[in-house]
Model the fold of this input.
Amino acid sequence: MKNIVIIEDNKYMREGWQTFIDYEEDLQVIATFNSCEDAFRSKDIDDTHLFLMDIGLPGMNGIEGVAYIREHYPEAICVMATVFDDDQHVFDALKAGAIGYLMKKVSPDELIAALRSALDGGSPITPNIARKVIQNLYSKEAKENILTDKEQEILEHLATGRSYNEIAKILFLSVDGIRYHIRNIYEKLQVHSRSEAVSKAINKKMIDPNKL
Done:
């Protein structure tokens, strides 16, 4: 039997979730609270396997609550169930330690399946939220790998240890022109030095170290 705690300030939502969960033979709600503060003052949460939480809570919000749980109950699992589907809330919750992110309009069957998935080691995320996560990762990866031909060439020269003056002479550019391209390279790779740029480029397979 897996113990679940619900933290949700909407009484009807809280009671509805509890009814659906308690109907299952392998799941039980051991306590419900309308705020994180009430939950964290209670001894009832000491044996919790999974916290089902809202984000928009009075006082401490759900994202802050997840961070608290991760610090004080590191073995417990946190699944968010919320109306917020904007990037900021999604990524703040995941960064805080939530392993699941559901929209409140999730059906009872989908909710139970998501909780079981989380307890079995999965990361249940509502499809439109999963799409946001994938698009964000793709955009970041794409940004890092989109170098112009000239930037790629300069990056390869940087990797060989050549100075700005040497690269400028080889490519028939001014030193200021080389600096301009290097600033763009650093920005795209999200680095701050030659060594970081080269290391990241090698890790991303943008440079073949065997050809250096």
Residues 116 and 183 are 48 Å apart (CA to CA). The beta strands are 2-7, 27-33, 50-53, 77-82, 100-103. The chain has two domains: 2-127, 142-211.
